[in-house]
Amino acid sequence: RRAFGAHFGKATCYPIEIKNLAFTDTPDYARLRFSNGPSSEEVAWGLCTLYDTDGSLLQGSAFIEGGEGAYVLKAKKQHEWPPEVLRDCQAWASLGYPDDYDGTGTCLWWLRTYDTLRPSVVDGAKRGMVQQGARGSQYPSASCDEILNDDAELSDNNVLLCTGLEYVILKTFIPTKIVSGSEVLYGPVGYINQKDAFFGSSSFAGDDTFVDIYRDYTDPRGEQMPPQTGAETETFEPVDPRYTQTYLATLVNRGYYRIQYTGDIGLFDQGVLEYQLVGLTDKPLLGSPEDEFAMVVDIKFIQALLGSPEDEFAMVVDIKFMKAVNLAFYYDGRQVLAAPRRDKISLNAVPGLSYMDPVSKIVSFVVKGTMSPVRIRQLEVVSVAFGVVATFDSFFEDNFLDPNSIDSSFNDMVPPTYAANYDPEGGNIVKSNTFVRNLASVLNINPARLRVVNIVPGNRRRLKELAQKEPHKWKHLYQRKLEEGDDEGLGVDFEISSVDVCADVTCFNGGDCNDEGECDCKTGFGGSNCTVTIVNATQAPTPAPSSFAPTSLPELNAPTLKPTGQPTKKASAFDELLSVADSLVVAASDGTMDTGYEVSEIAVALPPDQCGVIGGNGLSCVDACGVANGDNSTCADVCGIPYGDGASCLVIAGGFDDCDHGDSSTGVMSERQLVLLRGVNVAGTYALSFNGATTSFLSVYSTVDSVSAAVSALDTIGTVLVTSVAVTNAASGSGVSAVDIQVEFQRSPGTHPLHYGALPNTLQLVTASLTGGGVTLAQTDVVCAGTGHAGMTYEEQKVAVKAGADPSTVLSTSNASSPSSTSSFRLALTAGKGAELENVTGTTEPILATATAFEFSEALAAMTMTYTAADLTSSSFELTREFFEVSKADADTAEWVVRFFFAPLSDGLDITVLGNVPPFVGTPAVANAVAVSVSVVEQTSGVVQSSDMPVSATALAAAQAAQEEAKAATAAAEAAAAALANPVTVLAVTHVCGDGVRTTLEACDDGGLANDDGCSGNCTVEAGFVCSDAVGQLSTCEVPVAPTLFFEQTSFGPFDEGTSGVAVVLRMGNNATAVSVRYSVAGSTAVSEQSVNDDCASAADFNNTGGIVEFAAFEVRKEVSVPLFVDGIWEQALSEYEKLVVVLVASSVSGAQIDDTRATAQLSIRDTDHQNQTLGWCLSEAPSLAPTNSPSHDPTPAPTLPPTPGPSSTPTLAPSVTVLPSPLPTTEPTLTLAPTPGTMEPTSLPSFKPTAAPTLPPSPLPSGTPTALPSNSPTFKPSLA
Question: What is the distance between the alpha carbons of residues 83 and 217, in angstroms, rounded to a whole number?
Answer without folding.
Answer: 11
